[in-house]
Amino acid sequence: MPIEKQPKTREPMWHDWDDKAQKKGIHHTVYTVAGDHYTGDWSSNKKNGKGTQFWKKSGTIYDGDWKDNKRHGFGTLSVPVKNGYRKVYSGGWKNGMRHGYGTNFYSPTEYYEGEWYASKRSGWGRMYFEDGSIYEGEWFNDLRNGEGMLRLANGNRYEGCWKDDLKHGAGKFYYLDKGQLYEGTWRNDIPKCGNMVDYARNEATHPTQYQLPENKLQNPEAVIREAEEKLEDDETE
User: Fold this and answer.
1) Torsion region of 146: left, alpha or beta (phi above 0 gives left; psi -120 to 50 gives alpha)
2) Helices and strands in the chain: count of H runs, count of E runs
3) What pTM was estimated for this model as a whole?
4) Could you give the 3-state DSSP secondary structure of residue 179?
5) Of 126, 136, 127, 187, which Cα lies nearest the Cα of 158?
């Protein structure tokens, strides 16, 4: 009985060419017509894994994790300066935006370290300002919101509530340079009602000439409470 020879099945040549054209695995450097280039891992024709992206127009460099062509995971973003590069952000990313815990440098002397959500400061964080003051506390939608402490360069500090970047609600302001303490209610960065007392005068650098007089109201707590209630009523009207 004659033996029949089965012909070999071969994939069309374009299948092989298409496979070779796919970006997958570790590539050296892939350029775009605009002059941008990426060096790193690929999967399914997309940046996936570790890689470094350079944008020619701005000179910006991102080095870190990628997922489906977006910065995702941990990475560092840097911009060109006169003598090289300056780090702008280092930390978590999600879908191309700052997300999770990270540090953002606004200038060589002003930076934020803390939590992010969709490229906005949200959660807990610490902000170092150029004037030497430091805020540590809660953030929402890129603004100070919630409980937090602001320490000024001269040592004075505020501890209390914030709303949309302003002191708002119950809080204490320590005037350590003068040896006084204010405790009360704030509205839009302005103290509205509260009690001022002498505090650590012997440690103050510039204490007031005279001590504060004694509060002789029969029931000062009731007076403050009434003022606070009026503030709340005004806000609800």
Assistant:
1) left
2) 2, 16
3) 0.83
4) coil
5) 136
Q: How far is the C-alpha of 129 from the C-alpha of 107, rounded, in Å? A: 9
State the Cα–Cα distance between residues 45 and 180, nearest whole angstrom. Answer: 65
The residue type at 193 = C
- CA 25 and chain centroid, separation: 33
Tell me what percent of the chain is helix, strand and coil, each rounded to the nearest 5.
10, 55, 35
Scan for tokens 């374009």, then name that residue.
14
Nearest alpha-carbon partner for 59 in 33, 91, 82, 43: 82
* pLDDT exceeds cutoff 90 at 225: no
Phi-psi region of 98 (alpha: psi -120 to 50; beta: other; left: phi over 0): beta
Binned at pLDDT 50, 70 and 90, residue 60 comes out as very high
Please give the torsion angle defined by the CA atoms of residues 86, 92, 93 and 98, in that order, rounded to the nearest 10 degrees.
-70
pLDDT at 181 exceeding the cut of 50? yes
What are the residue ranges of helices labelled H in the chain? 13-21, 220-236
pLDDT exceeds cutoff 60 at 148: yes
Stretch among 3-12, 97-106, 122-131, 196-205 having the lowest mean pLDDT: 3-12
Q: Is 213 helix (H, G, I), strand (E, B) or coil?
A: coil
Short-list 22, 48, 47, CA closest to 37: 47
Cβ contacts of residue 94 below 8 Å, gap of 6+?
Answer: 72, 100, 118
Identity of the amino acid at 24? K
> Tokens 């891992």 correspond to what residue?
41
